[in-house]
Amino acid sequence: MPANTYPSSSRYLIFNELRSGFEASSVPPLSVTLQVGQHLAISGVSGCGKSSLLQVIAGLKAPQSGEVLYNDQQIGESALHFWRQQICYFPQQAVMGGECVRDVLHLPWRLKAITHLPLPDEQTCLSALRKAGIDVLLEKTIASLSGGEKQRVAIARGLLMQREIWLMDEPTSALDPVGRDHIIQLIEESSLICISVSHDPVWLTSATHVHTMSLGKDECNV
Ligand SMILES: Nc1ncnc2c1ncn2[C@@H]1O[C@H](COP(=O)(O)OP(=O)(O)OP(=O)(O)O)[C@@H](O)[C@H]1O
């Protein structure tokens, strides 16, 4: 579908000629339209600018050029507050922000980033952890968790936040194949729009769209 064709779905995300400015000048910009249930994976060699593009999408870096539209709203500087309430951003190193699993899951409520949902109770937290593929006590200290367990706790927190768009930077880097496949299934069964950065060939195969970047030229299979 051409990037500027508005689909009939009630929720859609359009990237129109988007560039971070950290990719090679010969790399074409990102132009794609995503609907609910679709997953754009950004791939390419180290240093080609994948994470920078994701950070632009997250509103953490200003774009060099191009635009982002969510439904009928242009996501410029004045819409960043709105935009941050729609997205859940998972950086390469999961940000924990708490001493134990419960604290980490409650962080968005503590920071008042989530005000329209009640603080999740014990059962809701445990159910989100199970959906993310981790069975752990809420009292467990974060210092005792592996990198992959931390990644899954961050994903459980994302589930509790109930945001519509997930932005994931190398989400499977600390996961074994079983953990990775679990997250792939979770995303496929969700009604999210997901944009990820990944090198993992299995993860890339699971995406509905792949934007392949290089240090000099670029292809986008949409
Ligand atoms: N804020 C910044 N200031 C200066 N250079 C930056 C900044 N952000 C990114 N870069 C540079 O832009 C280039 C692309 O970085 P980026 O992290 O986006 O690549 P990547 O494809 O995600 O790499 P990797 O796969 O290794 O994580 C790198 O050369 C990086 O040093």
TrEMBL record:
PROSITE patterns: ABC_TRANSPORTER_1 (PS00211), ABC_TRANSPORTER_2 (PS50893). It comes from Photobacterium angustum. Belongs to the ABC transporter superfamily. The keyword Mitochondrion does not apply. Signal peptide: none annotated. This is ABC transporter. Keywords: ATP-binding, Nucleotide-binding, Transport. Residues 12-222 form the ABC transporter domain.
